[in-house]
UniProtKB/TrEMBL annotation:
It comes from Parablautia intestinalis. The keyword Acetylation does not apply. It comes from the Bacteria. Keywords: Membrane, Transmembrane, Transmembrane helix. The chain crosses the membrane at residues 21-42, 62-84, 105-128, 134-157, 169-190, 210-229. This is ABC transporter permease.
């Protein structure tokens, strides 16, 4: 446990030296302020201009979903970037033969950041939410968001060879979270074309107020993570 803690602190020190990664950790807070205050302001301005009752309001649930997934994704993104750098510099291989070992390295680079991402979402989502969310819903969203963040991080590590590629892959892989958008705009059965995406079921669960839909989201997330994790282990 001590080796895992020290390895995580080492990663945190590397994060502080990279200003882009350091700022990324605060991106969920900045996004939260925008979602919580700017979007209602824009909604009020639009409804006054077009003389309608609501324009963005019907999609406030979607904003809450995206915020829950964004918070976790940013924390996991930082961890993935540092892991890529360590792989490029061959330092990860040396860490495997220290008391940390491979399992400790994975715990420090994935387990601890994912736990922090989960706790951050639990804290931030009630502060910046736009719709009434029960404690159970917040818990489910935080869990689903954390799993999405892990999927994005593993996609980056599996596909990318360096940090530059990692940045590009991150932009593409985050598109997976937009599966939550589809149930809000497509009502026909064609929406199930993207049902393999866990975010799709998260969107349906919140839109239709059916927590049961989170079950396929968790199962699919576990399948994605297991598949990507095996590929990551082979790569390192």
């Amino acid at each position: 446990m001590k080796a895992i803690r020290l390895s995580f602190f080492q990663m945190a020190a590397a994060m502080r030296r990279d200003m882009m990664l350091f700022v990324s950790c605060f991106a969920p807070i900045l996004a939260g302020f925008f979602f919580r205050f700017a979007i209602p302001f824009i909604e009020a301005a639009l409804t006054d201009s077009f003389h309608v009752a609501a324009i963005i309001t019907p999609y406030y649930k979607l904003v809450d979903i995206l915020f829950a997934m964004l918070s976790s994704t940013m924390f996991c993104f930082v961890s993935a970037m540092i892991s890529l750098e360590e792989r490029d510099e061959k330092t990860a291989v040396y860490l495997f033969i220290t008391p940390l070992r491979k399992t400790g390295y994975i715990a420090a680079r994935f387990g601890v950041p994912s736990a922090i991402a989960f706790l951050a979402t639990i804290i931030l989502l009630p502060v910046f939410k736009l719709t009434p969310l029960s404690p159970l819903t917040i818990l489910l969203l935080a869990t689903g968001g954390t799993l999405q963040g892990m999927i994005v991080a593993l996609l980056v590590l599996t596909i990318s060879s360096n940090k530059l590629e990692g940045m590009a892959v991150t932009k593409l892989s985050t598109l997976a979270i937009f599966g939550a958008v589809i149930p809000f705009f497509i009502k026909s059965d064609i929406q199930y074309v993207i049902s393999p995406l866990p975010s799709f079921w998260i969107g349906k669960a919140i839109l239709e107020n059916m927590p049961f839909y989170m079950l396929p989201a968790f199962v699919l997330s576990a399948m994605w993570i297991c598949f990507l994790f095996k590929r990551y282990l082979r790569k390192i």
